[in-house]
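Handout, section 3.2

Students often ask what a structure token actually looks like in practice. Rather than define it abstractly, here is a full record for Endoplasmic reticulum metallopeptidase 1. The first block is the sequence as you would receive it.
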Amino acid sequence: MEWASESGAVRRHRIGGERRDGPAATQQPEREALAQEPLGGGGGASRGAGTGLSEARAALGLALYLLALRALVQLSLRQLVLRGAAVGQQGEFDAHQARDYLEHITSIGPRITGSPENEILTVHYLLEQIKLIEAQSNSLHKISVDVQRPTGSFSIDFLGGFTSYYDNITNVVVKLEPRAGAQHAVLANCHFDSVANSPGASDDAVSCSVMLEVLRVLSTSSEALSHAVIFLFNGAEENVLQASHGFITQHPWASLVRAFINLEAAGVGGKELVFQTGPENPWLVQAYVSAAKHPFASVVAQEVFQSGIIPSDTDFRIYRDFGNIPGIDLAFIENGYIYHTKYDTADRILTDSIQRAGDNILAVLKYLATSDMLASSSKYQHGNMVFFDVLGLFVIAYPSRVGSIINYMVVMAVVLYLGRKLLHPKYKTATYTKDFFCGLGITLISWFTSLVTVLIIAVFISLIGQSLSWYNHFYVSVCLYGTAAVAKIIFIHTLAKRFYYVNASGQYLGEVFFDVSLCVHCGFLTALTYRGLCSAFISAVWVAFPLLTKLCVQKDLKQHGAGGKFIAFYLLGMFIPYLYALYLIWAVFEMFTPILGRSGSEIPPDVVLASILAGCTMILSSYFINFIYLAKSTKRTMLSLTLVCTVTFLLVCSGSFFPYSSNPASPKPKRVFLQHITRTFHDLDGSIVKRDSGVWINGFDYTGMSHVTPHISEINDSIRADCEENAPLCGFPWYLPVHFLIRKNWYLPAPEVSPREPAHFRLVSKEQTPWDSIKLTFEATGPSHMSFYVRTHKGATLSQWSLGNGTPVTSKGGDYFVFYSHGLQASTWHFWIEVQVLEERPEGMVTVAIAAHYFSGEDRSSQLDALREKFPDWTFPSAWVCTYNLFVF
């Protein structure tokens, strides 16, 4: 590092002469005294006080430091299997065998519940492989197989709340137990069904393949198990968790289950993340910590997922809420851009990714199946755990109550550190206190203006129709929003340095702003700990390590100033908090960036991403603010950042960065739903008052159809769909109740659809109950997927029905939504609703509608297929035929 060209004494004399009457001049002797005090944080000698770091070297050094840490994070993420682990040996998981299972399952094609591919072909393949595994099993073990076809109903508060009904869906259940039997079991769960138009390799065929191989390894082992292991291959998870509900509420083996492991996916390949555990039952986390060979787990992910920020759910919820069973939830999270698309193919999943998942699941299941804690788990159920992995090498875990003690001890250490400063003579205390609180205000102002700046840019980009420009080029978001946030923070602190702290030395100000950052993080630590959040450990790391670093380097800073040695030791001390922060930031963007491409038409993704980037910038810059005051100048840095931001902004505004990609190596498609529908509306006496047909089009991101219109001119704003105000959910056949997320729809006129097996719906009876409500009984038949909607009229309320637990659950907007599905064969669906009416009205008491969704089979539409072919290759149009019938009673 370079020293300033003039001494501290000359500089102070010059500045003092120029600004002798300034308000800060009277505080200069006090600041000089503080800067020379070791308890002031190592203030510095006169030489250090007047020196300044070279701007170029400081900026380059910090950039290289962060890049080096990012490289370490990337290296750890690419290391899927730790070298030296036994692979392919006798008694070990064999990823190549699991891949063989995976390729056979995905070769069947999309496996929608109710289709022959799901109910016959996949089930037959699973049973065939299980039979082969049973033939090779060790005589120590007993294998039992059951194919369950449950029927049931439940309500769930996912997506605003709705009710689910299923009939004759499929579960393939395998129980591996000691020859003498077992009273307790651990459950492993996967699902072999997929969404329409996707082979579902990652979601969730690979998990079922892993479970088949784990079953093979365990069954051939010469080691006896203490407890049973139940493998549930469920066939209706994509139908909003129906098959797991059928198992846990109806299967006789469900009573044996004491814990479970759920294997899921929110991406394709990479590492499988433990993102939910419990509830409570810390012994399960300890089991994972003790057994997993390639750990990847975070309580931060758990608390983020359970907050509801991520619009997704897994079978974990069903086992937790309806079975009162604790468990571990794992999911692949990498490359979520192709999740639930045609690109989710077996060849995109690395063999090492399968190997690590298999090693971990096998080890944890074996640990639990031989553990005494499984049989008496109720003794160990109290309390939560703080847990996190360190670059995938090992997991640190401890009880949350211990974490709270540690956190408050760290807070006390900060109080003592600052308290010693405040115990100096009174004139020093007043100056330091004033500068500290002014520094706190300046820091908060810099953060606020930084956030406002990036939000203004994001809103402008959204208004001009250039949202998601970073979706296919993530560096664009960093160059646009990241540089703007950093530049604004530096700008505000440079103004403070030049016009407010005119007579203070750089080292003194570095001390003040270090203490400010320390206090801010300490405040977060206190608040998070007080709220009982386990993720408060991050704040503890961001307080403890910087504080220790400062105490260690303050002597060198006092004696030699802010030289190269000080900088080196300072950055070395920040290594752990910054490394872990970048590790978490990667996970945040890996998960949230793809989600923003399918989060609906109402949430501006640029605003969300800009806010996240601004928050990350605030965190990462917090302990580097002192370098602004230690450096001679910041002009070049601000100019460079502003130039990068401006150039990127102009390129984005000109449309240079297209959001989507059809690159086979790394596709990032735009998701579109196309439903060729025929709608029929009936009035109170049953007469048809309206009938129309068309292709109902929904884009699943904020850009709507703006990028599609140049390729398909008939899809434009002149065919925007109008909401039928008197119909539930605007009179359209929503497959799931996501109407509040997607309000921009298009309705392209098209000929009527004529399904080979049309849906039938009728009112069977209408009767008055002894408690003066009206009971309406219905029956319906139709395809494997249907949706039922209800809206009560003024003066009427839906008091109860034969679905779920009997209490109707409203969706967002006040309407009622029922998701129905059945397996290959199903009987007529009979159900009733009760309506409480204050007084009869001429417009009736309730409006109901039923939509039939034809995902598989021969019920296709040539017009729909022709339209789908027009879509450019960077889109993923998922298309199916629907009918919609509305009635008033």
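Discussion prompt for tutorial groups: Residues 470 and 476 are 5 Å apart (CA to CA). How would you have guessed this from the sequence alone?
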